[in-house]
Write a sequence for this structure.
């Protein structure tokens, strides 16, 4: 089987940082660690159909998470964590809070503390 060569995927910074850290523990580069996680995730996602249905039912609230087997709970927790991370990364919290009239403080791309006012004004200095 031919490996995909020359293709680059965009990876979230938090995943790359975690892969670099975890990779050091296992003598892998960050890229190798991401590939390892992807392969493990692919196998976990290929759970038998009945387990997948039970996990989906737990997500939908039709089955209590406590009724899942230990193995199903591992997958459920991983899926839940991923769903939370994906949802959080899609929300523009500054914009949401500005729309509610809340001033926020955040780091800019240079690591400087900046204020974001709802009226889009900037404080002096």
């Amino acid at each position: 089987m031919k490996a995909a060569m020359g293709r680059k995927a965009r990876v979230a910074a938090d995943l790359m940082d975690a892969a670099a850290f975890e990779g050091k523990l296992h003598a892998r580069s960050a890229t190798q660690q991401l590939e390892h996680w992807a392969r493990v995730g692919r196998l976990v996602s290929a759970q038998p159909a009945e387990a997948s249905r039970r996990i989906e039912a737990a997500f939908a609230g039709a089955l209590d998470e406590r009724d899942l087997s230990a193995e199903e709970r591992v997958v459920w927790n991983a899926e839940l964590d991923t769903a939370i991370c994906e949802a959080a990364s899609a929300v523009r919290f500054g914009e949401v809070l500005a729309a509610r009239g809340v001033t926020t403080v955040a780091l800019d791309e240079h690591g400087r503390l900046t204020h974001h006012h709802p009226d889009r004004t900037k404080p002096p200095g």
About this structure: Residues 92-125 form one domain. The chain is about 55% helix and 5% strand. The mean pLDDT is 83. Helices lie at 13-25, 30-45, 49-60, 70-90, 93-99.
